[in-house]
Each structure stands twice: as C-alpha cells, then as structure tokens.
Amino acid sequence: MSSPISFRAAAAGLSLALALGACQSNSKPDAARQGVPEPDASGLPAGLKPGTWRGVLTAQGQEIPFLFDVSTADNGQKPTVTLRNGEERLKLDETTTAGDSTTIRLGVFDAALVVRAVGEDGLKGTWVKYDGKEPYRVPFAAFRTPNNDNLFVGDSKMVPIYGDLVKGATFRVEFKGDDGETYPAVGLIQQDSANDHMLTGTFLTTTGDYRYLAGNIVNKKDGEHLLLSTFDGSHGFLFDGKVSKPGNINSITGDFYSGKSGHETWTAVLDGNAKLPDANTLTGMKPGQKKLAFKFPNIYEGGSISPIDPKYQGKVVVLQILGSWCPNCMDETNFLAPWYEKNKGRGVEIIGLGYERTPDQTLASQKLIKMKERMNVGYDLAVAGVASKDSASKSLPQLAGVLAFPTTIFLDKKGEVRKVHTGFSGPGTGKYYQQEIAEFNKTVDMLLKE
C-alpha cells in the first residue's frame, strides 16, 4: 500500500475519511512480490512451543502487542497458532520451516510471520505482507508468558476501576489524519474489573469497524492512558488515548497507529447517544439508473458472471463487493457463507465481486479460490478488478461510487437495485452486528415477498 490509511470524501454533504481499518485500498497493485521470497515448505516448524505467547510488532517507535496460543496437533509435531483479539480466536494452521526459520501463514491473507527461535522461550522475526506496492516488513518478537491478559505494562501504581467502562461505555469519536482530513466514529469500550482491568472494544466508522480490540489502562509519566491493540494478520493497530483527568473518562485524546506508517489522532467524548450516518444513504445509483450492467470473469478459468445470467433471473440477488485482503469483508463472508447455505432454496443468490491487490487475473483468482475453500463459500465469486475504490467505481459505472470494502447491493427479482449498504459492522461490535444481521434479513425477506 502507498500508506496504511487512506481517506475518501463521503456523500450527502458529510466529510468522512476512509481508513484502512474499514478495508479501503487505494494502492497501485504490483504483480511482482518485489523481492520478498515465498516461504519454502520443507521440514517441520521449529521454535514454537505450546503455551501462551505475547507478541510485539515494532513500528513508528511504538509497540503493538497481541497474544497468541500455540498448540500441537495429534501427531505432536505440527503446531496450530491461534491469534487472540478480545473474544476472537483466529486459527493459523499453515506453518513451514526452512533452515532455522519458521513461516506462519496468516489465514486467508497474503501475509506471514517469519520467525526463528531465540533462547528457550523467545521468537524473533518479521511480519511480512506480500501483496503491497513495496516490500512490507515490520519487526516482530515474542515470549512465552504465564500472564494471559495483560497486554500493556505501566508503572506499579494500581489503575482505577472506571464505573462507566465496567458497564460498557459509548463514545462520540473523531479521527483526524496527518493531512487534516477527519471522519466520525463511535467507540465502544468495556472494562473487566475482575480480570486485571482488561479492556475490550472497537470503533465503528461509516465504512466498517476496527474489529476486536483488547488492552488495559496503564499509568505513564503524563497520566493514565487507555491502550487498545489488535493483530489479525492483515492489520496491526494501536490506539493510545490519554484520559483527561485521573479517574474521569469523559474526554480522551490520543494517537492511532496502523502498521508500518499509518497515523491519525483521535478524540473521544463520553456520549451514550453517539451514532453514525445511515449506512444505506452514503451512496446509491446515479440518476436515471436502476440496474447494474457487468460481466466479470469467474474465479474458475473460462467462465464469466453477469446479473443477467439465467441462474439469477427471477431471483433476489445480493452483490458483495469484497477483497480477500479485507478483514471486514471476511467478517461479512463469515456471515454470508452459512446464511447462503440455509437460504439458497428460497430463491436468493449471492455474487461476490472480488477486487484484489494484483492486476494479474490468475493470481487474483487464486487468492479468491483460497478464501472460498477456507471459508466454505458456496456462492459465486468473480474477479472484478484491483483493490481500490476508483477501480470498483469504474467497474460499476451505474453506481454513484464505491466508498468502502465491503459494500452490499440488493437486487430485486427484476434485477433492479433496491438498496446499497456501505460497510459492515462485524461481530466485534456486539449489538450493532445483531442489528446488521436483522436488517439484512429484513431486506431479503421483503424482496422475496414481492
């Protein structure tokens, strides 16, 4: 990527920026891997021992910590690495060894942790993303730890229990990029008073959410800081917010660090009524347009997909604009894949339009096929273009524009666009996720009854 955080101007007179956490990509894809070698699958992994590990990515002078577990399979040799982000568990079961280095592939993402053993209980290496415009490497280290929850370490002074956070607090948030662009968000943060004051939460934006965040409150020299982080294989995030007054979370100001170079500042004000603009109003069809006209290559060689194909005639069709590189898209796919299996007999189809970080159709197809197989996706997938909002907008010219990955488009039985939904509130958002699912089902049910 040209930068880990990209911005966009939103519709309806709102000035909204689009961050990577919401899965927007404006990079210029490169078919080559720019000198980053592919993992060499030889032998069994070395250096990984069963137990809980505290991993740390070092970027922009900051430490981005996360927890992961290592367990062995039945043969007692091949390990499974499980990333832990709050309640989320992401299992990684592709590990290979070459010499003294072990490569841990990061799920569906074109990325890996390449590590080697340091002493008895340590690892050192690099987080590598293979699909960027340039080689993307971030230093990584990890140590086995008996402490399963304390991500961040401050001084020895006990931090307070915040009553509002224990109940679950909602914040009105504004993020501001280094270029001065701003966008709104809603912060959801909860403190567990019985578990080392551990924090969990997320930030919702108009284009998606920052998924499962975890951390704790620590004391620094300048006061109390609320710290949250996550690592899902595609993104490494750190939110560092200073509490305005000790014991008072009414106002928080801080920094948001995204991977190798992304940076924004943020302010949060306690506000139980904070909300975002309606995701169904941010974009839509251009004046006079009712249908989408496209024909994209199927992920399998030789085929193509168009909404006018006989398979989709007379059916409700859901279009999913996605990328295999996008965690928010994977959240939506985790919902849509089993939903489709339960509902396809009702006269509804789903088409996934994939925008990948390579202009090479073969490579793009391979990435989407891997996603399809790992996530048990039974609906059709097409290679629609490269991973940028401009590419997506140009490929669907009847739309007023594509503002986010994912974007979900609902077609009625006549093939006419009835709703365009920007972004997706994933399971890390709690009740907002339930509302997202309820709205999806309500829309499909309505269109099926027509």
TrEMBL record:
Region (Disordered): 27-49
Pfam families: Redoxin (PF08534)
PROSITE patterns documented for this protein: THIOREDOXIN_2 (PS51352)
GO-annotated molecular function: isomerase activity; oxidoreductase activity
CDD domains hit by this protein: TlpA_like_family
Domain Thioredoxin: 285-442
Keywords of the record: Isomerase
Domain of life: Bacteria
The keyword Lipid metabolism is annotated on this UniProt entry: no
Keyword Isomerase: yes
Protein's UniProt name: Thiol-disulfide isomerase/thioredoxin
Lineage, top ranks: Bacteria, Pseudomonadati, Bacteroidota, Cytophagia, Cytophagales
